[in-house]
What does this fold into?
Amino acid sequence: MKIFKTIILSLFLFHIAFAYNDISMSDRQGHFYFADSSKDKELFIRFSAVDSMRASFMTPKIYFHSFILKGRLEGHLYDNLFFNSAVSLFMDRSNAPIIEGSYDPADGIPFTKESENTYNWAQVQTNLKYETKYGNFLAGMDRLQWGTAKRNPLILRGETQFYRPWSDSTTFIFEPASTPYFGYELNFGPLQYTQYAAKLSQKKNKLKYLNAHRLQMNLPFNVEIGVSEMTVYGSTTEKANTNPNLDADSADRHFEWIYAIPLLPYMFAEPFLGDLDNNALAFDFKVNAFKNWELYGEIFLDDLLNPLSAFNSDWWGDKWAASIGVTKSGLCLSSVCFTFNAEYTRIEPWVYTHHKGDGYTYQNYGSSLGSDLGPNAQEIYTSLSADYKKFGFKLEASRVDKDTAFGGKINDIHGPLSSNKKRFLDPKSTIHYKELKAAVFYSPYDFLWGSFRYSYYFKDYKGYRLESSLGLTW
It folds into this structure.
């Protein structure tokens, strides 16, 4: 920690004040480069020093001031072994008091309290890819992402994270956490098969896993279709006899190798293990058949027993979510080009939950692997962005409806005495808010950028939010 503070102080002594906002903005192409004479081995080293100020003028009023140092290594060893690794070190200061972190994964990404109002934490990503003529082998620690949705990915959201009015907290970090994984890719012409086995974290000393595989079909006319299966399982995290379901108190679970077998559907593999685990099936598509138009969508089927009953409320276990959107780009007036995006997302009650408890829920470090909205929610979202020389502009509007009743939280457990009916967005327990947002980005040089955002909220959340940033990469 002393080294970290020394680096920060040195930057200020050299009058370098930087800032953080979007990961994509802070990973520009400045770098140090090393290679052998034959260039069989190449290494790119990149650093960013970043700082941000975020203030929410709602109830309660809260601000965060963050210093971040980011380092990235990427390159290759010979022609078929590629790697990249990144670490981000955060020091956050808030006007709200900090409660000492428990280092229990269920409480989010671990952090260290430094003072009454400051804490620090880290985010790590690393990936290794070995290419062969038969396929590619994958390993690393990262936030895995599958699907085509831009605003609310339902399958695996990766590092997608948006501010929500309930995100202002000094006790929980809402960003998704990285997970260690290994896997492989197999290519069959227009077909690509990908499989991952990942270790999740929910409770200290309790094992939890995600197995996932996906078949992607690249069809004529720029049509892409994906079919994915995911299964989550782990050791019981609740205290004995606290879960009302008789099958909840299982023995400690370990990695199930049957899920790592390629091209074996999980719906057939799970019965061999005793029908124990939380399986999900998902479909997604993306169509770019018309110039500058993109139509995309995802549907997530979570333990759906009968597709014909999915759209009625008779059975709580028919859990599904869907997201559909359209993007129009290439709208240019003189030297200004516009991009429009609209997306609708609906998540039914109980999606991502499991009756056997947190060892089987669709989450890692307390955050959903799918949409951060969680079960029993919907969002209508639109955006219009524009680029002009070294400037970028963006206008956004969204409406969010989120039910807070039983079945609306990812950790809710449906028991034998719970109602078997489900109700989407019960008016008595649903909160509503709308957001209007404007942002401007400026990058005078490839290594320097700045941004400013203003967001206005009304209905059940009222107030506004300011965000500013300035950053440098070398």
Summary: The chain has three helices and 24 strands. The domain at 132-154+175-428 is CATH 2.40.160.130 (Porin). Confidence is low (pLDDT under 50) at residues 1-28.
